[in-house]
Design brief:
The chain has 9 helices and 9 strands. The chain has 317 residues and is an alpha/beta fold. α4 packs across α7 and α5 packs parallel to α7.
Amino acid sequence: MRPTFLARLATALVAGALVAACGGGQLEPFAPTRVLAFGDELSTIEADGRKYSINGFKQVTVNGTATDDLTTLDCTRLPIWIQTVAASFSLAFDRCLGTATAATGQVLARPAQKVADFAAQVAAVQGAPFGEKDLALVMFGLNDILELYGRYTGANRDTLIAEARTRGAALGGQVNALARRGPAVVLLTVPDIGLSPFALAQNTAGDTSRSKLISDLVATFNNRMSVELINDGRLIGLVFADIEVQNNVKFKENFGLTNVTQAACQTSAVLPACTTASLVTGAGATTWLWADSLLLSPAGQARLGLLAESRARNNPF
């Protein structure tokens, strides 16, 4: 049983007692009116609506049959996790309105961003000051892990692990600071990219120490970040994206996956240019876990979105 659940249970019991003392009634469900997305490629929607995953096309009806229009992308199809959460609250991001007539969300996430870039993203939020009707979606750390792994010499593992711990703590502190400013925060851990095609390709025959190092950096970063968080359930909801990816790999059939070790996109279709028309033979946007060698397909993104939505709805924000 995770500490966040215990905190949530205690809060709910106290709230229930207060409601009973006041003659009955229900706690008001959390209903955000603005959603803000912070992070890196895993949470980015470009100005033209493309995502760093597999992009889908607009569907048209031809002779009574729905078919893809291969000349027009539809940013609402094959959504990434932040879109799943926003849509569940009838909110729409500025970079992918869909059928909405006005934006109720902002995508501050950008490619190649690291923990050190979080503060600048927060400062770039437009409009009203943060408030209790805001929902902040946060996932950082992918590029920090890649940077640290890129420094590996074979003899500096402990130094890199220590730096991952420091960066995880820094992220936790910044998330706490954001939560204290008013918004409900749903925070995702870094997915375990030690299981990605990129990491697997780093290994030599019979030696898995490279992919293990990447997984260890991810675990260290995530563990230190989670320890740093305010843990009362009212301000921050934590989603374990690393464990979800591990489960997807270990029990792929249970998640409707057929491939969890290879990239679905052709190497020539560099993200965000990958579409359902540029996949390798046999690949599927909803049956392969990885879009390219590092980033999740719509299948992986969908799982994270469902977990994040559940956390946003069930935490006592």
